Amino acid sequence: MDRTYAEETVARAVKVLGDVRADDDDREDAASVIQVLIRRAHPTEADLTDVIAALSRALEVNLAIRRVLGELQRLRPAEVEKAGHSVERLMGQAFREDRAVALYQLVLVSLEEPAWAARIRDEVGKAVLIHAIGNLPERKYPVALLIGGWLWAQGDVPAWMREVVEERPDLITSGALPVATRWQLHTAAPSVTGWRSLAGLSGEKPTLEASTFGSWLDVAVETLQQALGETTDEGRKTMLHRWLVELTGMGT
After folding, report:
1. Any idea what the Cα angle at residue 58 is, between residues 53 and 98, rounded to 5°?
2. Where are the alpha helices (DSSP H) in the chain?
3. Cα–Cα distance, 106 to 100 (Å, whole number)
4. One pLDDT digit (tens) per residue for the chain, 252 residues
5. Chain centroid, CA 7 distance in Å
6. First to last CA, the chain
7. Rounded distance, CA 252 to CA 244, Å?
8. Residue 77: C-alpha distances to residues 39, 89, 105, 236 (Å)
9. Cα separation of 123 and 140, whole Å?
10. How far is Cα 16 from Cα 10, in angstroms, rounded to an integer?
């Protein structure tokens, strides 16, 4: 059976993308061709396997991950689901080979597809976030994308992210994150630094409820009391005192 133009062109592009001897610009162009034509080529399961195999040899090619995987997410749901297994293997490969940039791109793309987001292992998510935090304050955007993307995809703060926030409470003070996100992280991992920073923000302050902190309420109250005792700014002290009353019903 004769192959269509799209099938032939995608097949050639896959070969170029996976050829480590090829010129970088040619491999980048190959990724663009796959992005444009892959759906018109009506890929079989074997074709998708070949695409992922080529991509596994092109993790450092500029925009290859975004272009190829972003387009695969637009295939039929069953095909997207199957591709998730391969994407998980790609993340594992990038993690083992310590390819931080590629792993960051793989995680970001995966967060856009629920079937793939569920396959991001805890150690992978933690490694990517720690690497991104290491580039603060020069590069704020990656941290905001990772945390925001994860909270949007999963709906809550996972245990591994709580551990990161506990190790780096200065995340709560970072202007890289929206105020709502900073509060969400703080309620998952309350800290003295977090309380003092949030009390100093301009604008309307939230009313707190004990249930918001769940099993971390004792930690929230303890760190809030410490923050109140260490704070000299009257405006912040007033706010911290109000929150303490809201959480405990006591002013001291």
Report:
1. 100
2. 5-17, 24-37, 45-56, 64-72, 77-96, 100-111, 114-117, 122-133, 141-154, 159-167, 179-188, 192-199, 217-230, 234-248
3. 10
4. 457 999 999 999 999 999 999 999 999 999 999 999 999 999 999 999 999 999 999 999 999 999 999 999 999 999 999 999 999 999 999 999 999 999 999 999 999 999 999 999 999 999 999 999 988 877 888 999 999 999 998 889 999 999 999 999 989 998 889 999 999 999 999 999 999 999 999 888 899 999 999 999 999 999 999 999 999 999 999 999 999 999 998 755
5. 34
6. 81
7. 8
8. 13, 19, 22, 51
9. 22
10. 10
Long-range contacts of 183-189 (CB under 8 A, 24+ apart): 184/151, 184/157, 185/147, 185/157, 185/161, 187/212, 187/213, 187/216, 187/220, 188/156, 188/157, 188/161, 188/162, 188/216, 189/157, 189/162, 189/165, 189/216
Structure tokens at 155: 């709906």
51 phi, psi to nearest 5 deg: -60, -45
